[in-house]
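Review session, final week

We close the course with one last complete record, chosen because it touches almost every idea we covered. It is Cysteine desulfurase-like protein, a protein from Umezawaea endophytica with 404 residues. Go through it on your own first, then we will talk.
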Amino acid sequence: MTFDIAAIRSRFPALLDGYAYLDGAAGTQTPSSVIDAISTAYRVGIGNVGGPFPASARSTAIVADARQAVADLVGGDPSGVVFGPNSTTLIYRFAHTLAADWQEGDEIVVSRLDHDANVRPWVQAAARAGAVVRWAEVDVDTGELPADQYDALIGDRTKLVAVTAASNILGTRPDVAAITAKAHAAGALTFVDGVHSTPHDLPDVRALGADFYVTSAYKWAGPHIGALIADPALLETLHPEKLMPSPDRVPDRFETGTAPFADLAGVTAAVEHLAGLALPRPSLSRRERLRVSMEAVGAHERDLFEVLLGGLAGLPDVTLYGKPAERTAIAYFRVAGRTPAAVAEHLAVSGVNVWHGHSYAWELTGALGLRDSGGAVRAGLAHYNDRADVDRLLTAVAELTGAG
């Protein structure tokens, strides 16, 4: 197994600008293979699906290929892959559909760990239905989401349990399989937000126990496309609002409007990019190539993160938030005497891209006591980051603390 970081970085034209892109948790850069796939789709000609001409057939094939690619990535069924403009839109769409059967007194369970996209749509849908919202709390000292609390949260009236596979600011990886098992024992559905976790750890929707799983291609080197994955048999039981002439088959009936065909070609290319990161044997299936590559990605990111986390922890006046046992390579921190915005601005001047604020972890930053005072600075690693990126951030932060 080979992980050639220099070769990988050479695939990303954007990295030539000299900046350290440590903002991957908000969206990754795009390799040439994805850019080429999108531009090729436009160059050769595409048309809407269902026509008798070659351009229409090309679009049909692009959609089918993209469904298969996403299914390979998450361990799902291509007939259960639903595309949308982003994960937030997909969650709202499914919240509206699922809540149509909720009654007053039914219950849902959401967590304070989640991105608000996997909280607010459910809370709002529950309010419309008269359902009760129960909250899973975070240990603010460690950043953990204890699974045992769900024993008291889930009951006979529970309709749905929504939980993230990884926090987008602390990196916490809760025991999703344990949580979903408790939900299923009570007859509830599970909705897992895999947007932050997917780029760092090859998902397996069946092992996670996810009835619904969402991911966003632009978090793993693809275009701005969201995907929801579910068992096609489950999707057959759901009937979303849609236009009368639009297809009624699964999964098409969940996709409103005309698909962005060229971008879907980029989705397939992005999955292929991930599958080729560790140069595995071409005889392997794409799922197996993904497994080998993502194991290499995980090792690479863990090594870099050890340097990043250790470097920040060793600086005076730097406070790090969360210390979960299992986490993605992301750091959320503050520098004493500096606002998070000021730190991010200094890093930008130093050629380092990071985000600051609540990063849509609305409930979590509230629980941490950070939301109303500017949140914190978020620096996250992607598979194309290298030691020089990390060193540049540490040097810039050290300048602010007087240690530089």
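Two points worth writing down before the exam:
The mean pLDDT is 97.
The longest strand covers residues 158-164.
Good luck, everyone.
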